[in-house]
Amino acid sequence: MRVLAFLDGTLADPDQAHLRVDDLSVLRGDGVFETILVTDGRPRELGPHLDRLARSAAMLDLPEPDRAAWERVVQLVIDNWSGGSEIALKLVYTRGVEGDPNATPTAFALGMEIDEKVKRARAEGIAAVTLERGIGTDLMERAPWLLLGAKSLSYAVNMAAVREAARRGASDVIFTATDGSVLEGPTSAVILVRGRTLYTPPPTIGILPGTTQGDVFRAAERAGWQTVVESFPASELTSADAVFLASSVRKVTRVHTLDGQPLADSTELHAELAKVYDSQYD
Ligand code: PLP
């Protein structure tokens, strides 16, 4: 089951071709996107996702997204969905057609079923590897043209890292900076647990501000946990009580093995935190 709607409110057949071959998203990965989890007809963290879409668009000098139109198209996809109780809803906003001085962004929302692999990872946890990202933690401020912290469509490096993880017998990645600090996953934020405190690195070191991580932290604080947003070295991962990867579609996923070494058994912590997170949406 898939539902495709363009930002102007037109529904379209997702099995047909709609993009021009000279769309700059195709030619250069030039655009931004969001992926939102919809459960039982309710989009999770729609506001923060649309905020981040606007921020990413601004970083790429794209026209400001029409927020009300995006809210309408999200609802249109939801209203036309007849699949399972969860939707992975992708919003795509590209620079449009190459060489056209009057180019307007190409903009659409695509609702998809959740991948079986993702569902398995949510339940069973995953093995991850640490991989170098080659950036310093001060680079974002010095070099805004690198678009660190923008959710751009240029994910080839992120996907290559996941393939490297597969070559090393794992299914996901935790990127590290040149000073050994933990950054993020290719499609997730990193959360480390020590006692009753959750830690995540700050967006200022060149990573995406995670909407799920933010949501988990707020829910956890209400449930009595402490939360800390600060940098930490990758060496902290192996001694933590738990390491989680958080993203909209995977929710909070437990890392059980890192670089081939088993981590502390965090099954119970995971169940507790996943419940705290999910119970807001019951
Ligand atoms: N970091 C990166 C690089 C991502 O691609 C994602 C999501 O795809 C995240 C973090 C987590 O963001 P969110 O929780 O908003 O899905």
Give an account of the 3D structure:
The protein has 282 residues and is an alpha+beta fold. The chain has two domains: 2-114, D-amino Acid Aminotransferase, Chain A, domain 1; 119-279, Alpha-Beta Barrel (D-amino Acid Aminotransferase, Chain A, domain 2). It has helices spanning 24-28, 46-59, 67-79, 116-124, 139-142, 156-167, 211-222, 235-239, 267-279; strands spanning 2-6, 11-12, 31-39, 42-43, 86-94, 107-112, 126-132, 172-176, 189-194, 197-200, 226-229, 242-247, 251-258, 261-262. Strands 7, 8, 9, 10, 11, 12, 13 and 14 form an eight-stranded mixed sheet that branches. The chain has a six-stranded antiparallel sheet with strand order 2-1-6-5-3-4. A hairpin with a 2-residue loop joins strand 3 and strand 4 (42-43). 40% of the residues are buried. The mean pLDDT is 97. Bound molecules: pyridoxal-5'-phosphate. Pyridoxal-5'-phosphate (PLP) is lined by residues 35, 184, 186-189, 208, 210-213, 246-248. One of its GO terms (molecular function) is 4-amino-4-deoxychorismate lyase activity.
Q: Tell me the quaternary state.
A: single chain
List how many beta strands DSSP finds.
14
Which structural class should the secondary elements be placed in?
alpha+beta
| Tally of separate domains | 2
What fold name stands as the CATH topology of the largest domain?
D-amino Acid Aminotransferase, Chain A, domain 2
> CATH homologous superfamily of the largest domain - what is it?
D-amino Acid Aminotransferase, subunit A, domain 2
The average pLDDT is 97
Overall geometry comes to globular
Give the percentage of residues in beta strands.
25-35%
Provide the CATH architecture of the largest domain.
Answer: Alpha-Beta Barrel
Spans of at least 5 consecutive residues with low confidence: none
Bound molecules: pyridoxal-5'-phosphate
DSSP helical segment count: 9
Report on the biggest sheet. Answer: 8 strands, mixed
Helix % is: 25-40%
Topology as H/E string?
Answer: EEHEEHHEEHEHHEEEHEHEEEH
What is the distance, rounded to the nearest whole angstrom, between the alpha carbons of the first and last residues? 24 Å
**Level-1 CATH class name of the largest domain:** Alpha Beta
Query: Rg from C-alpha positions?
Result: 19 Å
